[in-house]
Amino acid sequence: MMMHTLLRTTLVTSVIFATSCANHTESDPKTTKTAAPKNIILMISDGNGFNGWLAADYYQGLAGKQTYQVTRPDGTAPLVFGLAHNALNLIDAQGLPLPKGTDVANAAGAVAQGYDPTTRWTRFENAMINDYTASGSYTSYTDSAAAGTALMSGRKTSVGRINMDWSNSERFETIAQLAMNEGLSAGTVTSVMISHATPAAAIAHNSSRNNYADIFNEMLASDLSVIMGAGHPLYGASGDIKALADDNDYKYVGGEQTYTSLTNQNGRESKSYIDSLADFKALAQGKNVPQRVIGIAQSGSTLQAGREALPGDDTPSGMAFNTNVPDLATMSLGALNVLDQDPDGFFVMIEGGAVDWMGHANNMPRFIEEQIDFNKAVDAVISWVETNSSWDETLLIITSDHECGGIWGEGTWTNSAGGYVAQDRSKASLETARFHPEEDTFNAFLAVQNRGKGNIPGYQWASRNHTNELVPLWAIGAGSQRFNEFTRTDLKAAELWGEHYKWDGNYVDNTVVFEVMEAALLRKP
Questions:
Q1: What angle do CA 412, 418, 419 make, to 5 degrees?
Q2: How far apart are CA 371 and CA 448, in angstroms?
């Protein structure tokens, strides 16, 4: 009982503080739609912070000009915020943080980490302390499981849990469940394995994000109308057919037995399993739209990020794309066509999941490729809304779950070994290029530098892990104004990233995303 009281007190205090620090702004009604939306669309670029976002925008020549960053033709303008995303930290009886991976049985409680702009900017490595603590404690970051839980249930948990409390004793109700309880349809879409942490967080409940088969089977047993992603057991990362699939290959789709049952569902009108590019394209075009679709693209892990040996195309990485799979935009349109059959409306989560993977890999060209794919998906969704719905009945939220890789502008620190970035892809070279406080010299907080459209911006990777830097959030349409009720301010962050995005430094906690969606869903005043 004492442990739960500690957690509850921490969370309640956080909510009270957020409300008391609210920044109520008077806005043009066109900017902040006041009506309750019929449809709620949450789009997540996994692992992308302000510098990463800006890097891809510079490459595209669209910094501050993306479809979701400008006023729409009907006069509806987006609201822009920062987003804090810290998880709960397991602690011992003395209140000290326990190392990552500690068995929950050894924890005496859990406390919120929080984000403090008054201390973040006093030392460069404050946002990535987990890289340097000998104990391995995760006091400075979240992961996609805990962050996805906060976004989609409004509840904090510790790293690795999916819609379960830190002690694995309480299940959280998600926004998708709430939507379906209210008679709406719901779905989840991703560019990585469908049972990965973020798409799973829309509906699943598990003590570990790594229990992929159990997670997929829970997703499949739910009433979700759309389940789309990668993780095909019979295909490799470049769209190649595997000579032999083993038990491990089937885990992302619930195991071999579950997969076999899925492939035998094609004769049923109410449920359709698809995996071919042609079927995804047909669905995006509104052809033969079923009431429910499970779509597993013909790639083993991600749509594109893991591809190899496909040379000869004009891409940031210099490698041709896998032509065997749909892009995220195609999957998104197909999902919207299925969900829009419900006259009561829908909720859908759409994730660009491999942005994070390329952050871990410190691979800027492929990081930019993944973010461009995400941006194109947002373009497609906005076009769909403005053609088939309106901003008076749709709420679109575009954000990330956390930052990954510690991306900063070239010259932020002077590397003792020389050079701003790794000269090759070897592990040793990548490690040398990262920030090491005992060896390198910090110079100044610098945003990534614009090198012109089609050119990789000036950058450095500080880490291979997650950090607790603020990430951006845009909200467009009905119900978006509610974000203004929960803001705090980080002026230093606004100095770095505010110019292109017209951001004033106001930020919210990630649980607020759920609060806003729940209020919109339940038509709360």
A1: 60
A2: 15
Closest alpha carbon to 59 in 401, 365, 482, 437: 365
**pLDDT for the residue numbered 34:** 52
Closest to 316 in 3D by CA, of 277, 351, 358 = 358
Q: Whole-angstrom Cα distance, residue 441 to residue 382?
A: 44
What does residue 324 show for φ and ψ, rounded to 5 degrees?
-90, -5
Provide the residue type at 2 as one letter.
M
* H helical segments located in 186-284: 197-201, 212-221, 256-263, 277-284
Question: H-helix or E-strand containing 185?
Answer: strand 185-193
Task: Give me the chain's average pLDDT, please.
Answer: 90
Residue 265: which pLDDT band, with cuts at 50, 70 and 90?
A: low
Whole-structure pTM value: 0.92
Are the beta carbons of 457 and 450 closer than 8 angstroms? Answer: yes
- How far apart, in whole angstroms, are the C-alpha atoms of residue 161 and residue 205? 8
Tell me which amino acid residue 489 is: T
The CA distance from 272 to 257, in Å, is: 17
Integer Cα distance of 466 and 143 in angstroms: 7
For the packed helices 511-521 and 144-153, what is the interaxial angle rounded to 10 degrees? 30
DSSP state of 350: E
The DSSP bridge partners found for residue 441 are 414
Q: Determine the Cα–Cα distance for residues 153 and 106; give it in Å rounded to an integer.
A: 26
The most distant pair of C-alpha atoms in the chain lies apart, rounded to whole Å, by 64
Rg (CA), the chain: 22
Residue 346 has a CB neighbour count (10 Å cut-off) of 25
Following DSSP, what letter does each residue of 261-323 receive, concatenated?
HHHT-TT-SS-EEE-SHHHHHHHHTT-S--SSEEEE-S-SS-SSTT--S-B---STTSBPPPT
* DSSP 8-state secondary structure symbol assigned to residue 65: T
17 has pLDDT over 50: no
> pLDDT (tens digit, 9 = 90+) per residue, 78-93?
999 999 999 999 999 9
Burial of 327 by CB count in 10 Å (0-12 exposed, 13-18 middle, 19+ buried)?
A: buried
Q: Are 78 and 481 in contact (CB under 8 A)?
A: no
Predicted pLDDT of residue 98: 87
From CA 12, how far away is CA 37, in angstroms rounded? Answer: 28
Q: How many residues does the chain have?
A: 525
Helices 364-388 and 50-60 meet at what angle, rounded to 10?
A: 80
255: left (phi over 0), alpha (psi -120 to 50) or beta: left
Three-state secondary structure of 394-417: EEEEEECCCEECCEECCCCEECCC
Q: What is the pLDDT of residue 113?
A: 86
d(CA 329, CA 95): 46
